[in-house]
Specification:
about 240 residues; alpha/beta; Rossmann fold; 7-stranded mixed sheet; 3-stranded antiparallel sheet; about 40% helix; binds S-adenosylmethionine
């Protein structure tokens, strides 16, 4: 059976098979389906928190099938030397870009076990996470559609084209309450009516993400169609 006649879940599984990351196939399939099914809204797709490109490949595959869609992937893309060990043995990173310092995993730090199991091997295999990301897009023929930005949401929003419109934004970056609230507000500037915001790690073990969803989305009255799929939550901006 050729790849194009395989069920889409198998195509995604093949495409992300060797890409380091955490999102399982059922969640990637849900992201793919919503991205493709919302093509009638128009606009592009944004990902905040891309790591090595695992979820970006699923979004890119849906964008390719939809036509006329680009995927903008924002991440601080930390290099090996950006990581440091905290006094309690957990890990964080900070990246300096254009003279500005960006910290990540400062409140909820990365435990030593997942750091050594999941993060260290990435740097043994690739020059850095941006190299891994670019390689993932290249081998899947997505480099023309999926663009990485080494930035946070604030910097991206300040430099994005003023006519940028989004039909879907997937948030999987900083899990701190204030940061997620700010990201939601910035994304809303570009989000079309009926467009979707998707979260990873919703109502799992990240208090900041949960509180931001409640205060910015549930209580705002501007969003509807809340749907949870394992760790992922999908909400639509009211029309
Ligand atoms: C869990 S990983 C993303 C995994 C990816 N979505 C996937 O499914 O393969 C979280 C990512 O968020 C990035 N990140 C953390 N804080 C960030 C921030 N303030 N702005 C942009 N990216 C950030 C990290 O560098 C990391 O790559």
């Amino acid at each position: 059976m050729s790849e194009t006649t395989q069920p889409i879940a198998s195509q995604i599984e093949t495409a992300v098979g060797s890409i380091p990351g955490w999102s399982p196939i059922d969640q990637l399939l849900t992201l793919f389906t919503l991205t493709f099914a919302s093509a009638n809204i128009g606009g592009d797709v944004l990902e905040l928190g891309s790591w090595c490109g695992r979820s970006a490949v699923a979004l890119g595959m849906a964008a390719r099938l939809s036509g006329n869609t680009r995927v903008h992937c924002i991440d601080l893309f930390p290099d090996k030397d950006d990581w440091y060990r905290n006094e309690d043995g957990t890990f964080s990173f900070s990246v300096t870009l254009a003279g500005k310092k960006y910290g990540a995993y400062q409140d909820q730090t990365v435990w030593a076990e997942p750091y050594h199991r999941d993060i260290v091997p990435v740097y043994q295999r690739y020059g850095g996470t941006l190299d891994a990301f670019k390689e993932a897009m290249r081998v899947n023929g997505l480099s023309d559609l999926v663009t990485p930005y080494r930035a946070d949401m604030e910097t991206f929003a300040a430099t994005a084209p003023s006519d940028l419109k989004l039909r879907l934004a997937f948030i999987d970056g900083d899990h701190n309450y204030d940061a997620v609230c700010n990201e939601i507000r910035l994304i809303e500037r570009f989000l079309l009516p009926g467009g979707w915001i998707c979260f990873d790690d919703a109502f799992s073990s990240y208090e900041g993400v949960n509180r931001a969803i409640l205060s910015e989305l549930v209580e705002s009255g501007r969003y509807c169609q809340f749907q949870q799929m394992t760790r992922k939550l999908f909400v639509a901006r009211k029309r």
